[in-house]
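User: I'm putting together a teaching handout on how sequence relates to shape, and I'd like one worked example. Could you take Diguanylate cyclase (GGDEF)-like protein from Sphaerotilus montanus, show the sequence you're using, and then write out its predicted structure as tokens right after it?

Assistant: Happy to. First the sequence, then the structure tokens directly below it.
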Amino acid sequence: MNHLELPVSVAPPAQLAGGLLDLLQVEGALLALKDADSGCYLWANAPCLAWLGADAQRVVGATDLELLPQTEANALQAADARALAAGQAVVTEDHRFERAGVRTEFHVVRHVLAPADGTRQILSLWRDVTQSRRDAGRLQSALDQIERQQHAVEVLRRQHAQGLDRPSELFRREHFEEHLRREAALSQREHREFALVLLALDRVESMRQTLGDPAVQAVTQSMGLLMRTNTRAMDVLSQLGDGRFAILLSGVGLATAHSRMEHLRRACATEVVVVNGQGFNFEVSIGVASFPHTAATLADLSQAAVRALADARQRGGNRVALASIRLGELLPVH
């Protein structure tokens, strides 16, 4: 078979190199060339100069220690040393930097060059992967959330099969208080403990101002689902008001209640709520009190839970705080 042979004209190496540099610059890649022995910059492209925060006149002939904070410079010098130890092999590493509260991640490729004059040079190609890593993290969070929701549906299905149906809506305050009185009477008769938990969404007003009422409503719905899937069918759940909730943990002491509520707090912190195509997280403060260890009456129990919740919020939110145990529970009576 005859092949049509076309004349091929190959651009000179210098032109090819220039074209490659232009392509990389369009992609936003950072390129730098250093002297291996001194660590001084020999050349850097415009994006690299912008990241270093200096012009070419200042960068060329300077080292990382002269251009960057010491912690960043030390990390780059160590990476250069590892590239030199690898010889002329291509070495890849990830670098993370935080400046003014903004975190940036780079995937860096280093290659040691050996020009004809006997010197060694380190060519590095930096690619900003901050957004792609963030997107990957969000995707993983979404997949984890789908798995948790599937687990929650399975839990509710098993409860239904076992005849342990619970209300689809959270109890109102008056019904919750009635359950609380019954549990206290049962506790006194059978000498067993139970826990009262108060929960409050953190920064709910800021959420409403920033994202609107639909966001608060969506968070409230997510909160109800998370409360159901992180408690038992015998526990009683209530919404007390705007962004405020309560849980009655039947037959549970302070330590067990803390463990279960810490699990619920973590579930809330990792939940992704989507409203109008925008995803966001929310956090919750939790106060836990138990009967009879932190209070001898229902009124005292409520106040103990209120104080524990206030403590959690005063300490920055997104935490579980326990009510203080009564001294009478610890000190012997003479």
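A couple of points you could highlight for students: DSSP finds eleven helices and twelve strands in the chain. The chain has a mean pLDDT of 84.
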